[in-house]
């Protein structure tokens, strides 16, 4: 039995496996610039975050209807459940779809068809987190928040993702203020490729409750001390860091040192279809390669529930 865990850093568009990409392409009459699934898999060799994002945005062309988003989310939830995931807080990137003429309602309602039945069907409770693309303008993010207003009963929080360097959190100050005023929870990617100062800014300017990645926080001892003291959760993604060359090899990953330093770490999959594994695969990899013992693995699983946005007793009883 895999360890029960919550997944807190998962881009639903990053769960698009080659098989489903080709099936949806056929269903929607979209042509992909790859001969077959093997040719597509060949393209999964990334130099850095941007080289991955190029393919990630390109493949989204196959996602067009509510049913596409429903099928995508159901496929993820089934795989996650099989690896012990009991709760999933799922990111989506509306701007990437709006830009292709796919409406907010299509995305949210489609995802909701799967998420709304997930507890019964897969034994996985869910939350939805809408991310802003940080390489787009703050005005575009604000328009996106506006477009989400009819769907706020389905959206728990906002996040910030895409190309990090050159797009500091402060760019989105007003958007995050508006999101907070709407009662939305706040998280942001920071310290994936960007400097520790972006982690500080995400906390101080955006008021985030968790940091997605936060790997480079380790370069700033004063920041580490603060994160430990305030028990700020970090949603780490070890296999993602290897594939995007944020670390040289998994054996070099700082997770054990981060846990030893007292940081509140969680282990997640990020974009599992692209990075070689789902949540359980990431747990297995850190166990096998980093030599984390049972107690550390349990700590990571426990942290994942503590750092989640589950709040009422009914939610917690379901664990
Ligand atoms: C992402 Cl790994 C990663 N980093 C930043 N933005 C993203 N969007 C999807 N995956
Ligand atoms: Zn991410």
List keywords for this structure.
319 residues; alpha/beta; TIM Barrel; binds 6-chloro-9H-purine; binds zinc ion
List the helices and strands and how they pair.
Blueprint: E1 5-11, H1 18-28, H2 37-42, H3 49-59, H4 66-82, E2 85-92, H5 94-98, H6 104-115, H7 118-122, E3 125-133, H8 138-147, E4 157-161, H9 173-181, E5 185-190, H10 196-204, E6 210-213, H11 221-229, E7 233-236, H12 238-243, H13 255-260, E8 264-267, H14 272-275, H15 279-290, H16 294-306, H17 313-317
Parallel strand pairs: 1-2, 2-3, 3-4, 4-5, 5-6, 6-7, 7-8
The chain binds 6-chloro-9H-purine and zinc ion.
Shape: globular
CATH architecture: Alpha-Beta Barrel
Number of domains: 1
- What is the distance, rounded to the nearest whole angstrom, between the alpha carbons of the first and last residues? 15 Å
CATH class: Alpha Beta
Low-confidence stretches: none
The main β sheet shows up as: 8 strands, parallel
The protein's oligomeric status is single chain
Work out the number of β strands: 8
Catalytic activity: adenine + H2O + H(+) = hypoxanthine + NH4(+)
Active site: 192 (proton donor)
EC number: 3.5.4.2
Cofactor: Zn(2+)
């Amino acid at each position: 039995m895999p360890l029960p865990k919550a997944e807190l850093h998962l881009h639903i568009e990053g769960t698009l496996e080659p098989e489903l990409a080709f099936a949806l392409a056929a269903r929607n009459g979209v042509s992909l610039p790859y001969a077959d699934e093997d040719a597509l898999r060949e393209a999964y060799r990334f130099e850095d975050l941007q080289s991955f994002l190029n393919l990630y945005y390109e493949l989204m062309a196959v996602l067009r209807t509510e049913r596409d988003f429903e099928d995508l989310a159901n496929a993820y939830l089934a795989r996650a459940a099989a690896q012990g995931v009991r709760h999933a807080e799922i990111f989506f990137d509306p701007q990437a779809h709006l830009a292709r003429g796919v409406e907010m309602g299509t995305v949210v309602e489609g995802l909701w068809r799967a998420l709304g039945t997930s507890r019964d069907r897969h034994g996985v409770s869910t939350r939805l987190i809408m991310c802003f693309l940080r390489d787009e303008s703050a005005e575009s993010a604000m328009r996106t928040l506006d477009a989400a207003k009819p769907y706020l009963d389905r959206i728990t929080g906002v996040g910030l993702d895409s190309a990090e360097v050159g797009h500091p959190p402060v760019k989105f100050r007003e958007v995050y203020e508006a999101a907070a005023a709407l009662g939305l929870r706040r998280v942001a990617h920071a310290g994936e490729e960007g400097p520790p100062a972006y982690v500080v800014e995400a906390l101080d300017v955006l008021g985030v409750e968790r940091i997605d990645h936060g790997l480079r926080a380790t370069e700033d001892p004063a920041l580490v001390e603060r994160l430990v003291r305030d028990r700020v959760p970090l949603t780490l993604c070890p296999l993602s860091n290897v594939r995007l060359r944020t670390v040289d090899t998994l054996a070099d990953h700082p997770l054990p040192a981060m846990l030893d330093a007292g940081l509140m770490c969680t282990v997640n999959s990020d974009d599992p279809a692209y990075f070689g594994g789902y949540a359980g695969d990431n747990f297995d990899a850190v166990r096998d390669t980093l030599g984390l013992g049972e107690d550390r693995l349990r700590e990571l699983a426990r942290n994942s529930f503590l750092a989640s946005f589950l709040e009422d007793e009914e939610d917690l009883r379901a664990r």
